[in-house]
Amino acid sequence: MEAPFFPFFKERNDRSLQFIESEEKIKQQSALEYIKAIHKQVKDRNPGESEFLQATWEVFESLRPVFEQHPEYIEESILERISEPERFINFRVTWEDDNGKVHVNRGYRVQFNSTLGPFKGGLRFHPSLTGSVVKFLGFEQIFKNALTGLPIGGGKGGSDFDPKGRSDREIMRFCQSFMTELSRHIGPDIDVPAGDIGVGKREIGYLFGQYKRIRNASEAGVFTGKNPDNGGSLIRKEATGYGTVYFVEEMLRDQGRSFAGSKVIVSGSGNVSIYAMEKAVEFGATVVACSDSEGYIYDPNGIDVETVKQLKEVGRKRIYEYLEFHPTARYGKDKSEIWKIPCDIALPCATQNEIDRESAQALVENNVKAVGEGANMPCNEEAVRMLTNNKVLFAPAKAANAGGVAVSAMEMSQNSMRYSWTSEEVDKKLQQVMKTIYKNCIETAAQYGSPGNLIIGANIAGFKKVADAMVSHGLN
């Protein structure tokens, strides 16, 4: 009796299936069109800001499955709101050198998104700093901070001032002038800056001292990265480098690999690089090369991290002077050539877009197994595509280098409690944060149809945390 009706039901079920598939395609197309339309709007509003546009598109293109599942984000214009800073501050910094000559620099602070907490992000003093770079860094900071699970929003700032070759007194006068303007825009519950390239404990000390003078108050929580004797957290200097290695080790472990016995290249020789090298060596790796802005050193027997510390942290010297202590090492003047050295793991820890397609291809040809971004967006779009298409394990910056801001948030907590944790306590908390970030990224990537893709996992996990809070907060 049932057989004559079977073709009818089969045909109806086929039509239902086709309708569902068609509806799914419409949703996908609609989400993609929405993303492209909003990014065109971002382009039109921010012409010529290549770094910012690169950073926004890298996040936007990951979000299509999110908008397919959550049309409420489109209705609430979350993408439009999250890509527009709450506030962008641009100011003049006038200061006097030791010879009495007056100089003028530009100062910046972008307060990008405070949905999860006070704006949080470093200050960078470097001649390459522009409004576009500040906005790209602040935009990235929104999602990086969200991934830590700590109550902090996204911000960034700095100046095109170059501290290299300047005396301590010149740097102090610049910092005082810079802070005279910035002080009116920050506070422990408003915006909490930290250090970045060109801004270490010395600069933070001068900035904090001027802030206290202006505000007539000891608000230790207004800055992080302070000297531990002045309210700073232990392990803060090491945190970004350590955190990068902790994250990459989790990624490697999932594939049955480890730092142990691996050859590693680390670009840069600042805090991130030095302490990534230190932790990689502690995990059993051999770091064979590192660099600075003028060139790179290669030592097949392994870089002596203590020598690099003495050169960079104590002497503020150039990396080629490493050869005076280790004459068997080799120096190269073209720092981009560092990526042609065979290695198992590459940790770009210098600056944005330092690895292009050619450098990524060289890494692939030399059978690199993993790349972990210690700097902010050190691989450009073509490089990321080259690495991921060739099955290289890839740890994106907003997840891998979140250790620094995580410990900054811990410093804020310690300041609020008028209490200090031991190095061991902070390091243990840092390890747990990085493990949690990795787990969150892996699970989110799988949930949204891209298992193992940490770029998509990090972008979506960070975005969703902020987006859900923005929806619950209403228009802001």
UniProtKB/TrEMBL annotation:
MF GO annotations: glutamate dehydrogenase (NADP+) activity; nucleotide binding
Pfam family, any one: ELFV_dehydrog_N
Residue ranges constituting the Glutamate/phenylalanine/leucine/valine/L-tryptophan dehydrogenase C-terminal domain according to the UniProt record: 233-474
One example of a Gene Ontology biological process annotation: glutamate biosynthetic process
A cellular component term, taken from the record's GO annotations: cytosol
Site (Important for catalysis): 196
Residues annotated for NAD(+) binding in this entry: 240, 271
Positions contributing to substrate binding: 120, 141, 144, 195, 408
UniProt entry keywords in alphabetical sequence: NAD, Nucleotide-binding, Oxidoreductase
Active site residues according to the UniProt entry: 156 (proton donor)
Family to which this protein belongs: Belongs to the Glu/Leu/Phe/Val dehydrogenases family.
The protein's assembly and partners: Homohexamer.
PANTHER family: NADP-SPECIFIC GLUTAMATE DEHYDROGENASE 1-RELATED
Protein's name according to its UniProt entry: Glutamate dehydrogenase
Lineage: Bacteria, Bacillati, Bacillota, Bacilli, Bacillales
